[in-house]
Every structure is written in structure tokens, then in C-alpha cells.
Amino acid sequence: MQSFTDPNVCPRRVDQRVLAGWRWCASWPGGMPQWSRLQFLLLFCCILAFMHIALNGIPSFVGGPLTLSYVEMNPLDEVLLNTATNGPLLYTRKGTNKKRSQAKSTTVSIRPGSTEGLPKDDFDRSKKYSFTLQKRDLDYCPNPPPSLVGPIRVFMDSPSMEQMIRIHRRVENGGHGFPKDCRARHRVGIVVPYRDRESHLRIFLHNLHLLLKKQQIDYVILVVEPIANQTFNRAKLMNIGYSEGLKLYPFQCFIFHDVDLLPEDDRNLYSCPVQPRHMSVAVDKFNYALPYKTIFGGISAMTIQHMQMINGFSNDYWGWGGEDDDLSTRTNSAGLKISRYPQQIARYKMIKHGKDTANPINYCRFKLMARTEYRYKKDGLNTLRYDMVAIEKKPLYTKILVDLREGEERETLKLLIPQC
User: Where is the Galactosyltransferase C-terminal domain (predicted)?
Assistant: First the structure.
């Protein structure tokens, strides 16, 4: 039987360089093994399989970067993965069974009045803010917060404001809450677009203050309301809440929150995200499933940088519908990705309510959505126009009352899209 390395078994037009390679292999002591093409193919597949296992199955083999597995992590670890936190986090390599570890905070001994050795502030502490700043000499709060239990009771009754003031007596006037014995890792503005749902607002405030206290967040609840006889513009109200919020406190991020959604799990952290985060993943109204994959409505969390990159929300969605999908398109167009907590954690109960006559269906929304990718840099924070009517610190929230200037805004929109 002829050797596989024998050039006589090959076609006449075979490349001369290949023939030279065969002759070189055959010149080795003992010659080339008498292997068939099938055996060579099997050997090649085995080599590929070994390389795949070495590179992916055992990251420490190559000393490569840390990779995190969503499959092997427990749900809370997956939440923390999408959290931009002050202070270091340590994660184990993919493929190990070890739990996520937390770097220990260090206690610094300093002289009274000295700032030596303290973490550097990311804001101007000499500036006068509307709410109390936390002390610098506190250690950062543990991560994750120690009092989280998972599923929690949702209070659907509507307590009076007097009752809630007694219950939440540690909340600062204006709806500012923060931990007293440690330094919060997140400063979060909760923006709530609102009108004429007083009982919903009380239920919302009661549930959210209870949750955020357990999560050790430094937060302020900002309720943004238009004046009477104006069509509801949810997206523009959220732009206003963001813009006015930055004047009141050095927030690191904002969570834009519908007033009728109540969290069911305290592991659903109201923290600053690495990527824009869709928080209301599983709502009881939709059988705890996403209505569609690209949805970015209900509750969304974004940092200051994210808001600048996407130019905030659109100002042109008057009435119900479209602004959430517009936000999703903006996010993707800016090169960002929408992240979500696990479905078993990001659960919400929706307060039932009737139709809002001041929030009619926006029949122009599809025409606007078709132009989002091209218009988002010219429609948003950089074109935001409104008149401030009043900012009032209530016991459990800050009320921002605004004139949306609907008449002139709609006239401007009609120049672009006459049907609107």
C-alpha cells in the first residue's frame, strides 16, 4: 500500500509547495504515519475542541480577563453586575462555584476637620444644595445591602399623608432619604411624571420610601406635574425632572418612574446602572412577561452620561404612546444597550386605574417614531422649553409644577410633520 505522503497518489496538478512539504515530512526518522484523510480530519477536530475548551472553559489557563456567567450566577449577583457602584467589587472567574465576593471597606483614622485619606467627592461640596449632603467620614454602605429579603409585601391601601409622615419620619422634607450610619453608594433622583392621581401617589410614596430605606440609597423623589388643561406629555415631564433635579442635588443617575408601578422584590436595586436599565421587566398586568423585546417603558434608569448621549427624551409626544419606543431607539442609536434585571427580581404590581381623558391616544406617534434615529440629536434636552411655575418641598416628595408651553410647541411640530 502506498504511503499517504507519496506524491504518486496525488493529482498531477497539485501545488509543488504541497509536494515539497510532503517530502519534508516523509524525510523524518521513521517517515510519516500511514494515516488516512479521515484520520487527519479527526485529529484536526480534536485539536480545535481542545483549543476551545482551553480558551473558554478554563479562563485561568490563559490568564485572560474575567468573564461573568449569567447562567451560573444567582439572581442578585446578576443585579449587581449591572450596577455602577462607589467602591470596588470582586467577581469570581467563570466556571467556578464560588460566591461573588465583596472588597472590605477600610476605616481611616483622621484628625477632626481633616479630609486626609477620605474618598474624593465627585461633586463640588462647597456649592449650596437644596438637600443635606452625607458626611464624608462615613464608610461606604455594604454591597449588597444587608437587610434585603427578596419578595416583599406590596401595600395597596391608600394611607393618609399624616399617617405616612409619622411612618417615614426620618425622610427629610422634600422626599430626601439617605442612610444615617454609612455613606450611600448611589445618589439617585426618582422622577415621577404625574397628574390627578392623589391616591396612587400616596400608595407609591409609601411603598417606595420603605424600599429605598432598606436599599441604603441616597435619593430624592421628584414629582413633576403640568398645569391644568394641558395634554399630558410624559417624556417632556421627565426631561424637566432631570434638568431641575440637577439644580437641586448632585445626583449620579435618575430613575424615571410611572406612579402606578410598585416593586415586589427588594433585591430590585434602585441603583446607578452600567448600561441604561429597563427596570419594570415583569408586571402583573402582562402576566409577568415582557410585552415585546425592545420595550423600555414603565421604569428606566440612566446615568447623567447616558442622558447626555441620547439627548434625553423626546419633547414631541403629546398624549399616550410612543415615547417609550422612541427612548429605546435613541438608546440603540447612541451605541448603548438596554439592560434588565432577572425576571424573578424585577417584578411589579400595577395599580388599576381608568382612562385619563387628559392623556388621549397620540395618533401621530408612528410618524414621530419613524424619524427618531435621525431626529434624536435635535429633539430632547437641547430643545427643552418650559416655564417653571413652582417648586415646593412637600413632606415626602418635591413637587415641580410647570407650564409645558403646549400651544407653541405643537405649532413648531406641525412645521415638521403637518399631520401632527
Answer: 277-353
